Amino acid sequence: MPDSISFTQGAAIPVAGKTALESLRTLDLKPGNTLFVAGASGAIGTIVIQLAKNRGIRVIGSASSKNHPHLLSLGAEKAVDYSIAEWKDQIKQWMPEGVEAALAIHRGTSKDSMDIVKAGGKVVTVSGDKVDSEREIKVEQMQHQLSIQEAVNMLIQDMVEKKLHLVIEHVYSFEQALDALEKTETGHARGKLVVSMEEA
Ligand SMILES: NC(=O)c1ccc[n+]([C@@H]2O[C@H](COP(=O)([O-])OP(=O)(O)OC[C@H]3O[C@@H](n4cnc5c(N)ncnc54)[C@H](OP(=O)(O)O)[C@@H]3O)[C@@H](O)[C@H]2O)c1
After folding, report:
1. For residue 34, what are the domain limits?
2. Which chain positions lie within coiled-coil regions (predicted)?
3. Number of domains making up the chain
4. Residue nearest to ligand 1 atom 23, measured at CA
């Protein structure tokens, strides 16, 4: 592990990081393309925004309003609040013809995400949502192609070069592990949660 990466950061990289990287590979977008990320302030979304921005992809993400400044600071161009009725209209104001692709991270967001993708675009889902294609939109589950070691090496390189900031909301002690699990299950964690085995 490079000196600039802590053990806590290293432990937080693999699953969300690999999922974010593989999601972008499955999306297969080009610089200048537009991407909607549904559930953008969680563990996967906070990494996807940065990886996409680094590849010249323009990102709009959904999250609660309180997390919007955070999404913008990571590189999203715009943020919408999934809890207000007009969020799809706000995306259409930004991109009147719709976005080229959507990444549905939070469970149950794939169908709504399809509504703001332009005809012939793509929806990639990581949550396992099953939706039927409409308007010739390609619907795909995120594909696993890289080994975990390859993915982690790529992500660590980006972190060392300060192109990727790993967002860690909280480090819990081992005794608090169930609290961490409960927080994850809320679907409202900002970035990663880590459980540390170190003695306080
Ligand atoms: N395919 C794979 O290999 C793989 C691997 C890992 C994970 N996953 C999947 O990825 C998902 C977990 O991802 P994650 O931990 O990054 O995030 P998550 O906990 O599923 O979602 C967090 C994000 O969703 C937003 N959100 C909460 N409620 C919402 C709602 N009702 N509608 C729309 N957005 C909502 C949150 O915003 P606020 O907090 O601002 O409200 C936050 O931005 C799970 O579905 C898991 O199964 C798949």
Report:
1. 1-200
2. none
3. 1
4. 39
